[in-house]
Write a structure and sequence with these properties.
By secondary structure, the protein is α+β, with helices and mostly antiparallel strands. 36% of the residues lie in helices and 14% in strands. The strands form two sheets. The chain has a three-stranded antiparallel β-sheet with strand order 3-4-5, with helices on one face. A hairpin with a 5-residue loop joins strand 1 and strand 2. The longest helix is centred in the last third of the chain and has 20 residues. The protein is elongated. The termini are far apart.
Length: 151
C-alpha cells in the first residue's frame, strides 16, 4: 500500500489559476467528424473535439466564479449547467484536444478574475460649464427658428 501525501491529491488536476484546479472527472471529451476542408481525410477521421465541462457541479469553483462563467460562456452554457467547447480548426485530433482545453482554461481564468468596482466620479466644474454653455447655445438656435414677430 502506497502512502499518499498532500502533494498526491492534485495529481491529474488541470490547473487554471494558482487557486483553481479542475478534476479530470469534470471534463469529458467526445469526437466527431470536422467540417470544412481536409479532402478525403475529413470523411474518415473524427478529428473534431467536443469538450464538456460540468461547471455547475464543480466543487472547485465558487458561486461567484460560476455566475461569471455562465455569463461569459453565453450559448456554450447548457441548461444542465455544462460548458461545451467544440474545436475543429486543426486536422489533428491531438491539436484540437489541446486547443479545446486551452480555450476552456482561458474561459475559466477570465471568469475567475473579479471585475474592478467602479468608483463613482463627479463631473468637473469646467465640464459642467461646457455642458450648460452648449445647452444655452442650442436653446438660442432653436429660439431663432420660431416665426418672426409681426411689428
Amino acid at each position: 500500500m502506497l502512502a499518499r501525501g498532500p502533494a498526491d491529491e492534485n495529481v491529474g488536476m488541470i490547473e487554471v489559476t494558482p487557486q483553481i484546479a479542475i478534476a479530470p472527472w469534470e471534463v469529458t471529451e467526445s469526437f466527431a467528424r470536422a467540417s470544412g476542408p481536409g479532402g478525403q481525410n475529413v470523411n474518415k477521421v473524427e478529428t473534431a473535439v467536443v469538450l464538456r465541462f460540468e461547471a455547475a457541479r464543480s466543487p472547485n469553483l465558487s458561486p461567484a466564479v460560476k455566475a461569471r462563467l455562465r455569463r461569459l460562456a453565453g450559448r456554450r452554457w447548457t441548461t444542465d449547467g455544462a460548458v461545451v467547447i467544440r474545436a475543429e480548426r486543426h486536422r489533428s485530433q491531438a491539436r484540437n484536444r489541446a486547443e479545446a482545453m486551452e480555450r476552456l482554461v482561458a474561459l475559466i481564468a477570465a471568469a475567475a478574475e473579479r471585475p474592478k468596482r467602479r468608483l463613482p466620479t463627479r463631473p468637473t466644474l469646467a465640464s459642467k460649464r461646457r455642458r450648460l454653455d452648449s445647452k444655452a447655445r442650442r436653446g438660442a438656435v432653436k429660439q431663432l427658428r420660431g416665426r418672426p414677430d409681426d411689428e
